[in-house]
Amino acid sequence: MTATLEPTGSLLARESEVRLVAGAADVSALAAELEALRTACDLPASASGAWVRAAVLTAEPQEPWAVVVRGATGRLDAAAVLLDRATSEGTRTVLASGGDGHRAGLPAVDGPSAALLADALAPELLLRAAAGGEVVLGPVTDDEVARELSRATGVPLTAVDPVPALRRDASNDLRDYLSHGLRKTLRKSANRADSDGLAVRTAFETSPAAIEALLPQMEAAYRDRDHQHGLRSVLDDPAGLALWRARLTGLVASGVVEVATLHLGDALAAYVVGLLEPPAYRVLEGRFVTEWARYSPGRLLEAAVAQRVLSTPQLELLDWMTGVAPETLLAANESAPLVELRLPEPGR
C-alpha cells in the first residue's frame, strides 16, 4: 500500500513527493533504491538495502512501513523504513536498519530532504506513542536527519554508547596499537598451539560459494558461544535464524562480505564476518568455538584481521560496528558518537 503525503513549505517541498509505503512486499521492493541512497549518504552496510530487506521479510510478527521522499526526477532523496512489532507489552516501533547494537540509518541527500522526511515521519511516530506504543529509533549518527526528527517530534536526542574504531596512523604494525597484556596473550596463544602440535591457519573468503559452504559451521559456532554462557541463542529462534541467514546471504550477494576463518588443525576454531567498504573494514560479527578456548582463537583471528586492514593501502579504518562491551575489543583509538530517539520521552 502506498499513500501520498502532502509536503508543505519550501519550493523544494512543492517539487518533492513524500509517500507512506506499507506492507512487506512494497517496502522490500525499495531495496535497490535504498542501497543507492545509503551509498550516496556514506552509511554503513547495516543501513543497506540487503540488510533492510532481510529485516522486512523475516517471519517475526511485525508490520513494515516506510516514509520516502522523492525529488523532481523521481530519485529517492530520503527514506526511513520502520517495523511495528507486536510485543507482550504492546507495539514497539523500530528502524528496519541496524539492530543488535549496530548503527541504523536515516539517509537523506541534503538538509531540505532531511527536513521533509522528519516532518512526514514525526506525526506517524507521535500517533503510535499516543496510542500506547513505544518508539525506539537508533542508534543512529548524530547528524542533520536525527536533529530534524528531534525538532519535528519535540523530543530530545539521547546519547548512547559510541562505536569504537581503529584508525591507521603512522604505523601499519598492529603491535604498535596493542597493550602489553594483549601482545603477551597473542604470543602465549600461538606458542601454546605450536607446543601442542596444532597448525594455526587463517583464511579470508569472499567467494559466495565458499562463504555458503562455511555457513553451517558458523551457525554452530554462534550457537556454541551462547549456550556456553547459559543463554538461549538468537539462532535457536526460527525468526532469529531466518534473519541471520537472510542478512548474511543478502550482504554476500551485494559483494561486500569477507569471512575470515581460523583453523586449528582441520577444525574451525573461530570466524569473523567483515564488510569491505573502503576506506573502512567493518566487523559485523565474530565467534569462536569453546572447545578451543585454551588457544584464544578469537583473539588470534581478530589480530590477523586487524593486521590485514592496517597492511591494506585502500583501508584506513577498522570499524567494530557496535558500542557493546568496548572493553573487550582488541584495540581502538577513536569512536563515532551515536544517539537515539525514544517515544514516549524517557521520564514522562
Describe the structure.
By secondary structure, the chain is an alpha+beta fold. The protein folds into 2 domains: about 1-160 and about 340-345, Gcn5-related N-acetyltransferase (GNAT) (Aminopeptidase); about 170-315, Gcn5-related N-acetyltransferase (GNAT) (Aminopeptidase), CATH 3.40.630. It is built from 10 helices and 13 strands. The chain has helices spanning about 10-15, 25-30, 30-40, 50-55, 110-130, 145-155, 180-195, 210-230, 240-255, 295-310, and strands spanning about 1-5, 15-20, 60-70, 75-85, 90-95, 135-140, 160-165, 200-205, 255-265, 265-275, 280-290, 315-320, 335-345. Strands 1-2-3-4-5-6-13-7-12-11-10-9-8 form a 13-stranded mixed β-sheet, with helices on both faces. β4 and β5 (about 90-95) form a beta hairpin. α4 (about 50-55) runs antiparallel to α9, α5 crosses α6 and α7 (about 180-195) crosses α10. The longest helix is centred in the middle third of the chain and has 21 residues, at about 210-230. The chain is globular. The two termini are about 35 Å apart. The model has no long low-confidence stretch (mean pLDDT about 90).
**DSSP strand tally:** 13
If strands are numbered along the chain, what order do they take across the biggest sheet? 1-2-3-4-5-6-13-7-12-11-10-9-8
Low-confidence stretches: none
CATH superfamily of the largest domain, called what? Gcn5-related N-acetyltransferase (GNAT)
Summed up, the domain count is 2
CATH fold name of the largest domain, please? Aminopeptidase
The radius of gyration over CA amounts to 22 Å
What is the N-to-C order of secondary-structure elements (H for helix, E for strand)? EHEHHHEEEHEHEHEHHEEEHEE
Q: Please state roughly what percent of the residues sit in beta strands, choosing from under 5%, 5-15%, 15-25%, 25-35%, 35-45% or over 45%.
A: 25-35%
Shape: globular
Helix content: 25-40%
Largest sheet: 13 strands, mixed
Number of helices: 10
Mean pLDDT: 92
